[in-house]
Amino acid sequence: MRIGKFTKWMLLSWVILFSACNSTKEVVYLQDVVPLKQQDIERKYEVFIHEDDLLSIMVNSKDPELALPFNMPLITYQIGSESSGQQRVLGYLVDTNGDIDFPILGKLHVAGLSRLELRDLIKEKLISGDYIKDPVVTVQFLNYKVSVMGEVARPGSFTITGDRITLLEALSMAGDLTIYGRRDRVAVIREENGKRTILFHDLRSSDIFTSPCYYLQQNDIVYVEPNKAKAGQRDINQNNSVSVWLSAVSVLAAVASLLVTVLK
């Protein structure tokens, strides 16, 4: 009798242990990474200028008056009931042809260039045109953002201040995946050169480090699929709603029947 109970307890323990191990494998990231192994990082994270990008381009010189014609004016705007307004620089919007209209220099084709390549292009034109001998040019993105949606804690669009953001960093900004998010089905949606690409990633594998979408580009969308548990929960909620309505209808029918009996 005791042996039978002991056997049952052992079987139950093994089932619980196996279920726990299986659950862990579903949610742990980078399971195949070897500890202390160093990997070379390829420079795949350079951001290139696309159409509809908004660029801030500032030109400076030892003589501020020489640089003044090449800079956009500062505009002041007020937020809420603040007494003092905030200032920002108007940006250059890249048109559908990949061009911007720059003061004095005229139309510049900037699509496909990196931020640093555009900086060097403007400096070269300012020097060769004998406008400024010692120009200091700064180029920044004003609308560099990525969006994260699906089964994450805080879905939304996030503005990026630097030139680099990885897929893992974007998910961290969104509060990480919820328990209902599929770690093996994280999609990155990218529009580039008139084409839309959707690439799925398995966060449990170190293969994400070699993905062309590991370093995100501006306006990329990250989507985390829900797992079967989430879908099952939705079905349960729908069934519960139906049950509530059926119960309400049954109560109303009983009350109506009672009223008919009383009135007779």
TrEMBL record:
<protein>
    <submittedName>
        <fullName>Polysaccharide biosynthesis/export family protein</fullName>
    </submittedName>
</protein>
<keyword id="KW-0812">Transmembrane</keyword>
<keyword id="KW-1133">Transmembrane helix</keyword>
<dbReference type="InterPro" id="IPR049712">
    <property type="entry name" value="Poly_export"/>
</dbReference>
<keyword id="KW-0472">Membrane</keyword>
<keyword id="KW-0449">Lipoprotein</keyword>
<dbReference type="InterPro" id="IPR003715">
    <property type="entry name" value="Poly_export_N"/>
</dbReference>
<keyword id="KW-0998">Cell outer membrane</keyword>
<dbReference type="Pfam" id="PF02563">
    <property type="entry name" value="Poly_export"/>
</dbReference>
<keyword id="KW-0732">Signal</keyword>
<comment type="similarity">
    <text>Belongs to the BexD/CtrA/VexA family.</text>
</comment>
<keyword id="KW-0406">Ion transport</keyword>
<feature type="domain" description="SLBB">
    <location>
        <begin position="145"/>
        <end position="224"/>
    </location>
</feature>
<dbReference type="InterPro" id="IPR054765">
    <property type="entry name" value="SLBB_dom"/>
</dbReference>
<keyword id="KW-0626">Porin</keyword>
<keyword id="KW-0813">Transport</keyword>
<keyword id="KW-0625">Polysaccharide transport</keyword>
<keyword id="KW-1134">Transmembrane beta strand</keyword>
<feature type="domain" description="Polysaccharide export protein N-terminal">
    <location>
        <begin position="45"/>
        <end position="140"/>
    </location>
</feature>
<dbReference type="Pfam" id="PF22461">
    <property type="entry name" value="SLBB_2"/>
</dbReference>
<feature type="transmembrane region" description="Helical">
    <location>
        <begin position="242"/>
        <end position="263"/>
    </location>
</feature>
<keyword id="KW-0762">Sugar transport</keyword>
<keyword id="KW-0564">Palmitate</keyword>
